[in-house]
């Protein structure tokens, strides 16, 4: 066992080595590395498998004995400061290690098929391995300085992955938005770390928590200062875990490749904020005001995310707001002191949401050849419907993830969400109402998403009524397909761009020949390759007709309906469906020695200094207590079925006319606008920060140009003209000086005479 703990450094090093090997190979030997692309993926998966094996072994040791180990090495050592680096192994660490590595390896297996025809395949695996290594280093860090270093690495990797398709303007804007928003939180985190060190004199997590609690108990610290430092520290998790009001980056993070949405929204980036608050829980627990702020921020985030998700049409954005809502649940639980429930929900949500995101990727992968490669088409639920008939495995696994997210027994999230709801009612009726209403809204929007996507009839032909033009970019230039329904099916060399076209006349000297090549388990039965030859002259009209006729023929033969995804993608979905169903049983109470306890509570006992106890004698009473939470969730499900269950058999455009009169039409219009405009928060931020900063910049520019520079330039101009005037008066001639002297004296006499006359007149009038 000691050998296992002393070699824990292997866990973050393995994916880091994979990232360095692939990244350096791509940098120094790009052609050779790209030709060995599958080998790069194999190396990444193999090394992460080693890390996962060690993580599971560590977790098993923690379950058996729950020891806390620290491996430390001196980094900075002098009279003023002593800083160490190393690794901290405790139950919280073991939970996060298993979650990150297991979800990460399934995402890599899934990505091998999903990204197989992308030019950035090798680069994607280099980023993904570095992302995983950064998160593993974060959860193993024993002090705040080391946490902050890996915290920034996680943010950098998210920036690279969100902007992976940087040629797409929306992706470039999304990664910048995520980067700037997280910089706000990270700056607060840095100030909080420095403030806590100033108060406690330590960066070590356990030491600073003990010293801080001693100072609080002895009243040797100002509570205002302590709460200020704690809230600054909490600002980092607010941004990283997409809590209100720094949540605005999370939906736009959907611009990255779909496989990366699973680790970002399930087990890695957004989980980092929850992990940090859990790691510093004993520190925050000593400050009731800060804990109250944390709980209310979590409650507002949960409700806000649920309301915005109600009318979303983009499949991935709907899941993003669902993630935001569930993260709010976790933060609420931590704020009310329900440490176990928060971590429990973190575990169950990681697998459920990873399954949902990978399932959405399978749907998008099958829709792209039909409706086009634009995210506005392939991710739009209006063009889907009836996919369970054509993609049964994806549909069933997606349904299991949906049931889990709604909190329907016996799926994983039911056990954790029910505990949060119960603890919320006990802590505060207001928070209880917020959590309870959010549970009902979750059931509604999650099953709305499922019904519209997988049930009813297929609506793929609706896209013919949309804008009939699309732009694409290839290695030999950009071109535009004139009709959306005749969109050419491009090969590996094409990536989607927007608002960039090129005339076919510029490439009219090239003839494009089409050859077929079989693909297994793909929605296409043939793959198109375009070969350029400059020996022929092809007219512009013939070139366009060849695109259109070929695409029409292939659509008739192969692309009328979506097909199931690759086997490796289905393997990841099926494998994630298992913990989605069974992982919740680690928190189910069982009778042991007269005490009702569970596996998760026993594991977390060293951190909570207590064993979770439940008064229920059996599962029947446990289910009875969960009736309110399940009832509101089922209410949302049935409401969704009433509205969308039958509506999917016809065009979604006939769903509910926003102009419908009456309360129902008005309510739908309000909710639709609220969801479409993201609660108007982005517009408010744009007005305050973007437009406000622009106006402030213009005012500063005007002030600098006309006031600051005006004063300086005015003094210079006055000095110039004054000097020029004096130069003409100093010619060196005595006669000129005498003339000036005489004129000056005459003027002085005139002034004196006028002054005396005025005085005499004044005295004369005063006499009377």
UniProtKB/TrEMBL annotation:
Subunit: NDH is composed of at least 16 different subunits, 5 of which are encoded in the nucleus.
UniProt keyword Plastid present: yes
Catalysis performed (reactions): a plastoquinone + NADH + (n+1) H(+)(in) = a plastoquinol + NAD(+) + n H(+)(out); a plastoquinone + NADPH + (n+1) H(+)(in) = a plastoquinol + NADP(+) + n H(+)(out)
Species name: Danaea sellowiana
NADH-Ubiquinone oxidoreductase (complex I) chain 5 N-terminal domain sequence ranges: 75-125
Keyword Nucleotidyltransferase (UniProt): no
Sequence intervals crossing the membrane: 6-29, 41-63, 83-109, 121-141, 147-166, 187-209, 260-281, 293-311, 327-348, 393-412, 432-451, 566-590, 622-644, 699-722, 734-754
Coiled-coil positions: none
EC number, as in UniProt: 7.1.1.-
Protein known as: NAD(P)H-quinone oxidoreductase subunit 5, chloroplastic
Membrane-topology descriptor: Multi-pass membrane protein
Keywords: Chloroplast, Membrane, NAD, NADP, Plastid, Plastoquinone, Quinone, Thylakoid, Translocase, Transmembrane, Transmembrane helix, Transport
Gene Ontology CC: one annotated term: chloroplast thylakoid membrane
Annotated Pfam families: Proton_antipo_C, Proton_antipo_M, Proton_antipo_N
Compartment(s) of residence: Plastid, Chloroplast thylakoid membrane
Highest taxon above the source species: Eukaryota
GO BP term, pick one: electron transport coupled proton transport
GO molecular function: NADH dehydrogenase (ubiquinone) activity; NADH dehydrogenase activity; quinone binding
Function as written in the Swiss-Prot or TrEMBL entry: NDH shuttles electrons from NAD(P)H:plastoquinone, via FMN and iron-sulfur (Fe-S) centers, to quinones in the photosynthetic chain and possibly in a chloroplast respiratory chain. The immediate electron acceptor for the enzyme in this species is believed to be plastoquinone. Couples the redox reaction to proton translocation, and thus conserves the redox energy in a proton gradient.
């Amino acid at each position: 066992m000691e050998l296992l703990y002393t070699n824990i450094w292997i866990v973050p090093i393995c994916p880091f080595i994979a990232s360095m090997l692939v990244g350096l190979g791509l940098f120094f030997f790009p052609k050779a590395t790209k030709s060995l692309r599958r080998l790069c993926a194999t190396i990444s998966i193999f090394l992460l498998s080693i890390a996962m094996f060690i993580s599971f072994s560590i977790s098993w040791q923690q379950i058996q004995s729950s020891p806390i180990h620290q491996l430390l090495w001196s980094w900075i050592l002098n009279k003023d400061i002593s800083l160490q680096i190393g690794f901290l192994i405790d139950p919280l660490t073991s939970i996060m290690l298993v979650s990150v590595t297991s979800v990460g390896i399934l995402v890599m297996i899934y990505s091998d098929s999903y990204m197989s025809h992308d030019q950035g395949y090798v680069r994607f695996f280099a980023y993904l391995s570095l992302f995983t290594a950064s998160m593993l280093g974060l959860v193993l860090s024993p002090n705040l300085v080391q946490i902050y270093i890996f915290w920034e690495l996680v943010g950098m990797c998210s920036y690279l992955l969100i902007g992976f398709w940087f040629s797409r303007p929306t992706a470039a804007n999304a990664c910048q938005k995520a980067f700037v928003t997280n910089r706000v939180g990270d700056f607060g985190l840095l100030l909080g770390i420095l403030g806590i060190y100033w108060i406690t004199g330590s960066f070590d997590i356990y030491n600073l928590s003990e010293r801080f609690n001693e100072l609080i108990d002895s009243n040797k610290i100002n509570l205002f200062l302590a709460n200020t430092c704690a809230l600054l520290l909490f600002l980092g998790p607010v941004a990283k875990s997409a809590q209100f009001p720094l949540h605005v980056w999370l939906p736009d993070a959907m611009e990255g490749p779909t496989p990366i949405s699973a680790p970002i929204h399930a087990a890695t980036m957004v989980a980092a904020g929850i992990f940090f608050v859990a790691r510093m829980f004993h520190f925050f627990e000593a400050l009731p005001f800060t804990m109250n702020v944390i709980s209310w921020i979590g409650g507002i985030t949960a409700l806000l995310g649920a309301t915005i998700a109600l009318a979303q049409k983009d499949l991935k954005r709907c899941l993003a707001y669902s993630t935001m809502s569930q993260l709010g649940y976790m933060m609420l639980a931590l704020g009310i002191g329900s440490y176990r429930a928060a971590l429990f929900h973190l575990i169950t949500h990681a697998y459920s949401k990873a399954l949902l995101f990978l399932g959405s990727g399978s749907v998008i992968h099958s829709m792209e050849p039909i409706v086009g490669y634009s995210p506005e088409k392939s991710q739009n639920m209006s063009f889907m419907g009836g996919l369970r008939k054509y993609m049964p495995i994806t549909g069933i696994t997606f349904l299991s993830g949906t049931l889990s997210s709604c909190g329907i027994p016996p799926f994983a999230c039911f056990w954790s969400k029910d505990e949060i709801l119960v603890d919320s009612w006990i802590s505060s009726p207001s928070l209880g109402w917020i959590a309870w209403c959010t549970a009902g809204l979750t059931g509604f929007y999650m099953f709305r998403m499922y019904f519209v996507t997988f049930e009813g009839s297929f609506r793929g032909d609706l896209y013919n009524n949309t804008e009939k033009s699309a732009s694409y970019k290839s290695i030999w230039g950009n071109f535009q397909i004139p009709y959306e329904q005749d969109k050419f099916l491009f090969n590996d060399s094409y990536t989607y761009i927007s608002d960039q076209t090129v005339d076919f006349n510029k490439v009219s000297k090239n003839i494009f020949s089409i050859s077929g090549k079989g693909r297994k388990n793909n929605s296409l039965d043939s793959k198109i390759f375009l070969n350029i030859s400059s020996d022929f002259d092809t007219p512009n009209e013939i070139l366009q007709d060849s695109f259109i006729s070929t695409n029409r023929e292939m659509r008739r033969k192969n692309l009328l309906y979506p097909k199931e995804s690759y086997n490796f993608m289905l393997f990841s979905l099926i494998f994630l469906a298992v913990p989605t169903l069974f992982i919740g049983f680690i928190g189910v109470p069982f009778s042991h020695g007269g005490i009702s306890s569970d596996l998760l509570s026993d594991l977390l006992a060293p951190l909570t200094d207590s064993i979770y106890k439940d008064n229920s004698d059996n599962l029947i009473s446990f289910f009875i207590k969960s009736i309110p939470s399940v009832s509101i969730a089922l209410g949302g499900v049935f409401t969704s079925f009433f509205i969308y269950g039958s509506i999917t058999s016809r065009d979604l455009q006939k769903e509910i006319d926003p102009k419908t009169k009456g309360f129902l039409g008005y309510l739908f219009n309000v909710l639709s606008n609220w969801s479409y405009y993201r609660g108007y928060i982005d517009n408010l931020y744009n007005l305050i920060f973007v437009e406000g900063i622009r106006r402030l910049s213009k005012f500063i520019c005007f002030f600098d140009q006309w006031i600051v520079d005006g004063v300086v330039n005015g003094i210079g101009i006055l000095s110039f003209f004054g000097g020029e005037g004096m130069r003409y008066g100093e010619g060196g001639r005595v006669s000129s000086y005498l003339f000036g002297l005489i004129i000056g004296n005459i003027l002085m006499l005139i002034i004196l005479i006028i002054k005396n006359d005025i005085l005499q007149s004044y005295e004369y009038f005063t006499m009377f």
